[in-house]
Automatic annotation (TrEMBL):
Sample GO molecular function, one term: aldehyde dehydrogenase (NAD+) activity
Enzyme Commission number, as recorded: 1.2.1.3
InterPro entries in the cross-refs: Ald_DH/histidinol_DH, Ald_DH_C, Ald_DH_CS_GLU, Ald_DH_N, Aldehyde_DH_dom, ALDH7A1-like
Pfam families listed in its UniProt record: Aldedh
Nuclease found in the keyword field: no
Keywords: NAD, Oxidoreductase
Name of this chain's protein: aldehyde dehydrogenase (NAD(+))
Membership in a protein family: Belongs to the aldehyde dehydrogenase family.
Taxonomy, superkingdom: Bacteria
């Protein structure tokens, strides 16, 4: 395994206690990123030659090491980004689940034997690794999401350059250290801590030198578009997992208590700082007011605060997200009404939240906000709002609800609450999202089903399950002619004569 190249300094602090320095890391420049890609390129041939079932044994080792270190890793995630401990434990479990799934794929990287139209000739297909993969990941899921990329990429025989978010550096280093103990050879997995612009410049240089064969990015739609454009110049298609403005449709026949619980978790879990967080609840006009009343009540009763306690959510992940969330709060207009807490904005002693757990002035804590009266042309309706804010609007017909759900142009996750199967299938057919939940929240992916979005949420690529194998392998077709003669396809093919003018009497 490679060591980190160093340059400038970054301090990662606990967002629930800003005086608590979690780690200090050295950030590298663009040249160091390119150098890491060069090391990965040098290591690739030998790693690809390791039989896939043996690479699966390494993945199994990673899974066992994650399970053995699960509590320590989860507590580090909670301390560094403020994710509630229960959620952090679930995130670590997702790494183990991902490893458990891909262990078996080491024995199932199947190709096919295909019959030829020629005699004495066989056709085969093989999955080959793409080569060097470069992954840039966000810090809201600092260990689970990287595993979605890195585990299958390694299993398929690729080498990896990984650039995690700076604000989750300690979690990333711990994740890397676990992988380093699994038996991976030198240079197969390389971690690079770098600032965004230096990462982009380094990636650009690595692509120009043909050192990187596949790019994966999890982050904002705006940065994803830039990475997609960069990769397109080199005729590459990146794996892009971007933002979301995820709708939840609540029909007139829905179980409202169940819908409210789904809205609470998907809207405010992790402080609304997930790509799959609920953006807007689109509620049938006949139950809109009752849904809003119940949603407000459970939100007001929810405990916010110390992420090591039993809370719905903790602080913002990092100071930069607090700044952007303040901007989103500025999108609340005069025709809106806010609900759900004893205040709006940052929770402090002077702007308290009823039932807050801990010291609000120590960290970056914000009130949950439900905004009713949201209109289709509002900024709050059209744009991703990364934080604890959920819009609510009404609809009359299901066609109108689907139109509203698709209007922002994202297409990651969606949800419908109904007891009518006809509405389920009508919604599934009309929605542009890559993922649909029925009577469940917009958040909560499992490790063996395809994860990804369309539109502003991604370029149609998918992570997780067998579907991600198409991101990290290339199909190779082989034809083997043992006839001893040159047989030309479509030209020397045997033809079968038929009397196509035949008709039955009568």
């Amino acid at each position: 395994m490679s060591t980190r190249l160093v340059a400038m300094n970054y301090v990662s602090t606990n967002p629930a206690d800003l005086e608590d320095v979690v780690t200090t890391v050295d950030l590298v420049d663009a040249q160091a990123f390119t150098a890491a890609a060069r090391r990965a390129k040098q290591a690739h041939r030998d790693w690809a030659r390791v039989p896939a079932p043996v690479r699966g044994q390494v993945v199994a080792n990673i899974g066992r090491l994650v399970e053995a270190n699960a509590e320590a890793l989860a507590r580090l995630v909670t301390r560094e980004i403020g994710k509630p401990l229960a959620e952090a434990r679930g995130e670590v479990q997702e790494i183990a689940d991902t490893c458990a799934f891909f262990v078996g794929e080491g024995r199932r990287l199947y190709g096919q034997t295909v019959p030829s139209e020629m005699p004495d000739k066989q056709l085969f297909t093989f999955r080959n690794p793409v080569g060097v993969t470069a992954f840039i990941t966000a810090g809201n899921f600092p260990v689970a999401v990287p595993s979605w990329y890195i585990v299958p990429a390694l299993l398929c025989g690729n080498t990896v350059v990984w650039k995690p978010a700076e604000y989750s550096a300690a979690s990333a280093q711990a994740f890397y250290d676990i992988f380093a103990a699994s038996g991976l050879p030198e240079g197969v997995l390389n971690i690079v801590f770098a600032e965004g612009s230096e990462t982009f410049r380094g990636l650009e240089s690595a692509l120009q030198e043909r050192l990187v064969d596949k790019v994966g990015f999890t982050g904002s739609s705006e940065v994803g578009a830039l990475i997609g454009e960069l990769c397109g110049r080199h005729l590459q298609s990146p794996c892009l997992e971007l933002g979301g403005k995820n709708p939840m449709v609540v029909t007139e026949d829905a179980d409202l208590d169940l819908a409210v619980q789904g809205a609470l978790f998907s809207g405010f879990g992790t402080g609304g700082q997930r790509c799959t967080s609920l953006g807007t609840a689109i509620v049938h006009e006949s139950v809109h007011d009752e849904f809003l009343r119940r949603f407000t009540a459970v939100t007001e009763a929810a405990v916010v605060g110390d992420p090591f306690g039993d809370v719905l959510y903790g602080p913002m992940l990092d100071g930069k997200f607090a700044v952007s969330y303040e901007k989103y709060l500025g999108w609340v207009r005069d025709h809106h009404t806010t609900h759900g807490s004893t205040g709006v904005g940052r929770i402090t002693a002077a702007n308290p939240r009823a039932g807050f757990l801990g010291d609000p002035d120590a960290g970056l804590f914000y009130h949950p906000v439900i905004v009713s009266g949201v209109r289709p042309d509002d900024e709050l309706f059209l744009h991703e709002t990364f934080g604890p804010i959920v819009g609510v609007t009404a609809y009359r017909t299901l066609d109108e609800a689907v139109e509203l759900a698709n209007r922002p142009g994202y297409g990651l996750s969606s949800s419908i609450y109904t007891t009518d199967p006809n509405k389920v299938f009508a919604f599934r057919t009309g929605i542009s999202a890559g993922m649909v939940s029925v009577n469940n929240s917009t958040s909560g992916a499992e490790a063996h089903v395809p994860f990804g979005g369309n539109g502003k949420s991604g370029n149609g690529s998918r992570q997780s399950g067998v579907w991600v194998l198409d991101q990290f392998t290339r199909w190779q077709a082989v034809n083997w002619d043992y006839s001893g003669a040159l047989q030309k396809a479509q030209m020397d093919t045997l033809s079968v004569e038929a009397d196509l003018d035949f008709r039955l009497d009568g």
